């Protein structure tokens, strides 16, 4: 099966698979007291700077839940876009595990702005109301759009002026950096991000994320939250070992660039059809578009992709690091007979 439904459906990069095989030799001390976890930690510090304190976890929902627990208490509120992963796709786990009120703001492009956030920054110190403490943003957003460095910094500056934190979900951070031609450090800690959920599963890794804190007061209790959240791996080397080749020789950037480029190729084909209308800017490896309902139905018989908004026949195509030119050519042939 070849899929355009999600980059979660792609395979594992050979270099990362090789790292897992090598980590499988002999025994190693559990719970992170091993060579691979130490080496991966140093790699992450090389990429994000000495302020970075990484904690390896199993998955994205776990990473977001641990990160948000580290920057909130149960009487706080978390502000996010209405399309945010923590609001739509995580079955309420972050709200359940933090006890926080989640305030979701409608957006047209999946991105928050300081102007949208400001009306929700009130009632500080009033015990009758949840206290605003954290803003959650996704990089790339759930609608495939990318925050610029300046946009991230503007949000961070607003929050820090109110003694609040900025949490970035970096499940597709690599794709954002490939689009902006910047480093991951420039787009996160340098721009004012306080805590990051850093993932590579959508970009060539098998599993695992890193919760990366950039502030000592946040770092202090993360290892407790990780344990309570059932995110502490006993055989942690199988999570951490992947980050070593992922970060070496810019493999993360190579994979993300390939995924973004393949999305552009696919978009160029889809744009040839007048009945297909794009609903979001093409800034990453995600394409959002309206396709005639009957055509979408027929194409879905041959390819796996998602409806985003079935009422208006809006669909989402996602390319991956291993999407080939042949994959795109075959989809083009299928389209010719349908649209």
Could you characterize the architecture of this molecule?
This protein is an alpha/beta fold and 339 residues long. It folds into two domains: 28-249, Aspartate Aminotransferase, domain 2; 251-336, Alpha-Beta Complex (Aspartate Aminotransferase, domain 1), CATH 3.90.1150.10. 40% of the residues lie in helices and 17% in strands. It has helices at residues 14-23, 35-48, 60-70, 85-88, 93-98, 114-117, 149-161, 173-180, 184-187, 216-219, 222-228, 237-240, 243-247, 251-270, 293-300, 325-336; strands spanning 53-57, 76-81, 101-105, 131-138, 165-170, 195-199, 209-213, 277-278, 286-290, 306-309, 314-318. Helix 8 (173-180) crosses helix 14.
Summarize this structure as a short list of keywords or feature phrases.
four-stranded antiparallel beta sheet, 339 residues, seven-stranded mixed beta sheet, 2 domains, Aspartate Aminotransferase, domain 1, single chain, 17% strand, alpha/beta, 16 helices, 11 strands, Aspartate Aminotransferase, domain 2
């Amino acid at each position: 099966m070849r899929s355009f439904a999600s980059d979660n459906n792609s395979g594992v990069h050979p270099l990362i698979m090789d790292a897992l095989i090598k980590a499988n030799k002999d025994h190693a001390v559990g719970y992170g007291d091993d060579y691979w976890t130490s080496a991966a930690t140093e790699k992450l510090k090389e990429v994000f700077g000495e302020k970075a304190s990484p904690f390896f976890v199993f998955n994205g929902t776990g990473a977001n839940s641990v990160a948000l627990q580290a920057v909130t208490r149960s009487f706080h509120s978390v502000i996010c876009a209405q399309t945010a992963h923590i609001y739509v796709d995580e079955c309420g786990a972050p709200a359940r595990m933090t006890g926080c009120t989640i305030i979701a703001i409608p957006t047209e492009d999946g991105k928050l702005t300081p102007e949208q956030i400001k009306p929700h920054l009130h009632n500080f110190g009033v015990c009758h109301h949840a206290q605003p403490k954290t803003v959650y943003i996704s990089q790339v957003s759930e609608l495939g759009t990318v925050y610029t460095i300046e946009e991230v910094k503007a949000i961070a500056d607003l929050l820090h002026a109110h003694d609040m934190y900025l949490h970035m979900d970096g499940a597709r951070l690599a794709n954002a950096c490939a689009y902006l031609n910047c480093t991951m450090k420039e787009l996160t800690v340098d721009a004012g991000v306080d805590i990051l959920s850093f993932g590579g599963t959508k970009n060539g890794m098998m599993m695992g994320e890193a919760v990366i804190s950039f502030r000592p007061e946040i770092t202090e209790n993360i290892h407790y939250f990780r344990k309570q959240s059932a995110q502490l791996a006993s055989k942690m080397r199988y999570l951490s070992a992947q980050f070593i080749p992922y970060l070496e020789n810019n493999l993360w950037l190579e994979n993300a660039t390939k995924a973004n480029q393949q999305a552009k190729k696919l978009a160029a084909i889809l744009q040839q059809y007048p009945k297909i209308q794009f609903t979001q800017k093409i800034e990453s490896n995600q394409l959002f578009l309206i396709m005639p309902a009957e055509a979408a139905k027929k194409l879905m018989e041959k390819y796996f992709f998602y409806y985003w908004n079935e009422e208006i026949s809006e669909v989402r195509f996602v390319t991956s690091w291993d999407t080939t030119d042949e994959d795109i050519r075959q989809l083009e042939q299928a389209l010719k007979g349908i649209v």
